[in-house]
Amino acid sequence: MITNERRIDTRTLAGGLKFELQTRYWFGLINPLQIVEVSNFSINGAAIVTPIKLKMGQRLYINILSEFHSIKRIPAEVVRYNNKREDYHYGIRFNINKLPDIASKNALHVLDNIQHALNQSLS
Q: What was the pLDDT predicted at 28?
């Protein structure tokens, strides 16, 4: 199943980024961290590849680790799904608005810095 996703932000190739994903379920249950491959990244979300099967709308926590930045437990959700190959390809959207005001401003600042660093490494 592929759904259309409207993007207003530009995506950047995500070489050097490491994503750790935790799935969230009802009653606050959280699974262990899983390392996933990131194909591209933006301030609002990312495209990931993983052998883990996720559902549309599934809530996640994402840890983003790069050479100079680290941000932990960003709430996110699955907004796009494609399993044309043996691995699953997902589009995830960060739900920064689920964080308190100060934390969301800081998270946006770090995400912007990560995207800027990725753009600099490509040029």
A: 66
